[in-house]
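# nightly structure sweep
# worker-07 picked up a monomer target from the shared queue
# config: single-sequence mode, recycle default, output format = structure tokens
# input follows
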Amino acid sequence: MIFKAVGEGRPYPDHGYSTSKQWSDVPPSQVRLDDLVTTKRTLDLDALLSEDSTFFGDLFAHVVQYQGELYLEDGLHRAVRAALHQRPVLHARVLVIDAQDG
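# output follows
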């Protein structure tokens, strides 16, 4: 199994991080793919196969830690690409939010 679970939607409250500048304040770290729960069930193959898919975006995936779970909010194509290269970890920006946040 690549991911811990495949989800649909964001089960956590809105965190207010919507711009690249906001996310850039969150330092990147390594996360294990098998610890991640996806927030999307489908993958855009164009994004997966594009060599410049991060040209206009963040180089790191965006993960939200909420109630002990790690949710892959943005960067599903990066995570699948890492899995296809048999890499068990992904570099991501991990935003930690609590139930009272949002």
